[in-house]
Amino acid sequence: MFSISQSYPTFDIQSIVIYLCIxxxxxIVMEIKGTLDLKKELSDISQCPASYVVAVNDTMNILSGKxxxxxxxxxxxxxxxxxxxxxxxxxxTPRMLSKELRDLEVNGLVxxxxxxxxxxxxxxxxxxxxxxxDKVLEVMIEWGLKHREFTLQREKPAEF
Amino acid sequence: MFSISQSYPTFDIQSIVIYLCIxxxxxIVMEIKGTLDLKKELSDISQCPASYVVAVNDTMNILSGKxxxxxxxxxxxxxxxxxxxxxxxxxxTPRMLSKELRDLEVNGLVxxxxxxxxxxxxxxxxxxxxxxxDKVLEVMIEWGLKHREFTLQREKPAEF
DNA sequence: CAGAATCCGGAGCGATACTG
DNA sequence: CAGTATCGCTCCGGATTCTG
Lengths: 160, 160
Description:
The structure is a homodimer.
Chain A: H1 4-7, H2 13-23, H3 27-35, H4 38-44, H5 50-63, H6 68-75, E1 80-81, H7 82-88, H8 94-106, E2 110-115, E3 121-126, H9 128-132, H10 134-155
Antiparallel strand pairs in A: 1-3, 2-3
Chain B binds a DNA duplex through helix 7 and helix 8.
């Protein structure tokens, strides 16, 4: 629906990598997050390569944690209540479900709605960003399939 | 360069999610990996939705670990020796560098070449899959930027 | 129903020292 | 140079119990 080159003309995968080296060690990322004015950061977002680091870091935060993906996956089918999620996601405990849902909520991927019923009803659903996360999943699948295909070809050359 | 719909016509993000629920809990994935004949798996790869789970799991294995991304990032610039990587990636210890490099090697992302010099010289470089991983990074960046943009707009609506 | 509180074991990672 | 070996800690996540 929209191409990378259109939206972010200065996108250059080459330029990010050096920043990535220092990114995941969380020092610089935290610095940027903490001290920078958010509005200013937004205005620079398509120019500054450092923003790429933050972007990757953001994505990694979503990916981190054992249950984030299953939860997002489950919510893709539509609104879910706490217990429903617990049933749909095998082996997850209420503690983990609660924690991961809160993470996703503060990160703006999931919207939490409380209804004044007795007892209380709580519904979770994906925000725009949560739905857009499909794109990341798609590429992960695509790469994973390709990678497997490639690896199998290389590892069994003498079989034929 | 190639679109998902072309390469994997049966690709359906909807069908994967239910599988994803059980994927990251590693039970089914391990089952598939261990018991299935690899050749058979390869032939089914564009049909079986379970392969999506494995694919995502593969990608997650790459993403896991604090130093995998920095290492890949560093290797994108070309061949590197052990010590060079150690210098380019801040704060990484030889122990972790060694461990993560071996992980990447057995997963087929990095090729390790030993030269018969005195003392020994070892060079690391990205395999095809490693280079192709750019695509994943790109989308992560794209999503991260969009996500930030979207989140900032939502959180500061009354400012104007 | 929708969680919070507490306890606890293991994996992941760091620091340091050593080796072919 | 290119790693390995050992120790120790932190924190993620599981199990269980309790609450508004």
